[in-house]
Each structure stands twice: as structure tokens, then as C-alpha cells.
Description:
By secondary structure, this protein is of the alpha+beta class. The protein contains seven helices and ten strands. It starts with a helix and ends in a 17-residue tail after the last helix.
Amino acid sequence: MRGDHHARRLGLECDIEMMVAGQAVHRDITKHAANHCAQCLLHDIVIGNQAIRTLITHPRLVDCGGSKIKTLVIAKCARVGIAAAMRTGTISRKTNETSIDVEVNLDGTGIYEVSTGIGFLDHMLEQLSRHSLIDLKVKAVGDLHIDQHHTTEDTGIAIGEAVLQALGDKRGITRYGSAYAPMDETLTRCALDISGRPYFVWKVALSMPRLGEWDTELIEHWFHSFATSAGITLHIENLYGSNNHHIVESCYKALARALRQAVEIDPRKADAIPSTKGTL
């Protein structure tokens, strides 16, 4: 029985590879969607793969029929490295106060290259990238001879805009995310909804005027700018903690983990927008 299952599984994988490569398939591949072998592939290959939705509109899938078999084919394409475009966003924001270039890849591995001129902000954006697995490039030049307000605000806006661009029509995303981030004596909670309706709740108290050279009153402003430009409902609450560095870092790490959940593709609804309205 196990040998027969394995043979059918290999047969499906072979058919998928041949079809995507444009070769003739000797049997109707849509029939695979109803058998147990196809369901195993759905769970074994698709789960957690961010390339799942990128080939939904591939011309060779037009006549396949059925969302399940589309999902299987897309997952196999990602596995064998066939034309799986990533969800990326690129923003260049230029004003009289700042010049900011941002690149994000939602399907990345947490690789970052960050330079804002504000050391502690750089450190936080590196944490955001590493723990969300979103690749992040930020190059910001601002009027720091005045203060850090414009650079902080515009960096949050640009990163949010890049994330929004990378999300596209938000088809297939999990949409909601939440996370607790402990850091020594500190615990922070983040909950978010990629809703298209920006809203921001900040329940964090900081007792120091600066962390490094960064004015701590600007930290809330960064989160607000990010949530607004990304179209996210974002709630951040520090439950307890005493060290200001730990509190702020746990806020960014909680956001990162919640964002990682929310942008991931739901393998059961990879071709659907997660809203009864049909749009986000």
C-alpha cells in the first residue's frame, strides 16, 4: 500500500514538472486533485512556502481547473525553482527634508542593509528584518542637523509603503498576526490586521529621553507612520518592563513576528483575498 502511494506521488510530481515545462502529459492532471496523493503534496510541499501564489496566473495553469491543483502546481514550481517571482516593493521618497530608498522582499530570509544616520533606529530595523524574515534595504539621508524627526517619520512611511506595494492585492495572505516578545524583564504584545484600514494603538511608557542619540518620543511616531502607510491596524502594548532598551527592542521584535505571520500565504486559501468584501 505504501509503495503504491509513493508511486502515485512520484507520478503527480512528474506530471506537474512536465506540464509547467510545457511538455505533454499523458493523463488528465486534474484527476490528481481528488486523490490522497495530491492532498499529501498539498501539506508536505505547500506549507510555509511563500512562492505559493506567484504562479496563480501562469498561462500553463489556465486549463488545469480547480484551485487545489493550481496550488499543487505552484508549490511544485517553487520547489524546483521555476520562475517563482518574490513579493517585493521598492520605494524612493525624496523631499526637501529627507532622501530615502527602501527595498523589501516579503519572501526573504531576514537579510538587511540599513543606514539611517540614527544608530538605534538602524539596530531596530535590523531586528525587524531578521525576525520577520523580510529582506530589508534602507538608505536614508536626512536633515539630522536639525533633529531626527523627519528622518524617523519618513523612514517609517517609506518602509510601510514598500510593504504595501509588495503585498499587491493581498491575495492569499494570512492577514492577521500576533506575537509576544519577551526580553529579560520585559514583555510586549503586538497584534495586527493587514486590513487596508490604518489604525494605531500604542500603550508603551518610556522613562528616558533618549536611547543612544534617538529621541524616545519619536519611537511611537515611527510605528504610527509605518502602520498608516502600510494600511495596517496595529496594536502594541508593553505589558511590563523597566529597561527602556529592552522595552523598545521587544516592541520591534513583536511587530516582526506578528508581521511574519500576517504576510505568509495561507495554503488553504492561496488564491483568495481574505475578506468577505472581496478586497482589502
